[in-house]
Amino acid sequence: MDNTSQNPFTIGKPFNIEFEDSKETKQPESEVQEEPQKETKEETPTEKVSPAPTEPTPSGKIEIEDILDREVAFEDSPTPPSSDEETQQAQEAVKEALLTDDNSFDYEFVAKKLIESGFWEDFENSGDVEIDKDVFEQLSKQQDTWKSERLVENIYSSFSPAEKEFLAFKQSGGDLEQYYQSKTAVDRINNLDISTDQGKVNAVYTYYKNFVGWDDQKINKHVQRITKDMDLDEEAQSAFETIQHHVVGQHQQMLQQQEDANNQRTKAIEDFKKDIKSILKSSNFDSRASTRVVKGLTNLKEESGLAEVDEAYLAFRNDPQRAVLLYSFLTDYEGFVNNLTASKQNEVQKKVFMDIKKAKKTPTEKKDFSFKPTRDKATKNPFIK
Hints:
Layout: E1 15-18, H1 29-42, E2 61-64, H2 85-99, H3 107-116, H4 133-157, H5 161-171, H6 176-190, H7 197-212, H8 216-228, H9 232-282, H10 287-298, H11 308-317, H12 320-331, H13 333-364
Antiparallel strand pairs: 1-2
């Protein structure tokens, strides 16, 4: 079988294997009907469950499948509890204090009650601070910030290790589809129960299918042989450990590579900012203009995921007339600048030339003070007879 073009987790076609001892014994129908109910009662939440929990059928057949081809559903993230009556009353008290125009309103009393009730967090030297309307407004904003930070911390701390792992991978910009496939493979092997015949056969099948490259027919014969020779338990344990080591190792390697890539990207962004600031400083930009340029180049907007420079680029790109200039600028920067400079110089030279020409013409122009012959005596030159 050619392994060069085979996906290491290729899905194998399920097939049925029949144990030899199953041909001699056959369970009564009544026992077959009661068996699923018995298993359901004995099953506990903490007990490992095989990916294919079906036990051998009355004919002794077990459906074999690749355990690396089963989706695993991720649990939903926990949601914070809803506000109770006391919380609503505290919120109304804050709202009333912020909206009131009563100069005699006791802001200090309200703030003290909010802290005692636990709705507000106490702060350093709170007893020495005189709380008026302005101070209360500042405290309210700061308390909202603290609440948001604490809410995030509480939610994050309630996440399972798998959820924290997923969140870190997502925040670092990882490929979520790649993560899902890798985590699914890890969960399948970790949930495989090789204490059952189903789990043992699936472990052996998965190993020879994905790591050795055997076809289903060859695996079927091998499973029958090791079952007959009483070697199924030992080989299933070995196959399970090999698969688990490989799959978990690949998953951890993927996480580490993504973390390294994110660190490199973060460092590259910081170096880029430093270079931009250095260039702006050498170009005599003031601090305010420098900050604005750096933000426009590096800060991404939450609503669009784009920086200001990206939005400006798209505006140029979508305008046909300016898109031509943009293309020239991006594909031939030096030529574009040279042409622009030459064009500007030509305009300047043309203007200077016209100004010089005008300046030369005005003072040297000769005026004709002679009189033309005419019949009008009033304008006739008196010196011409």
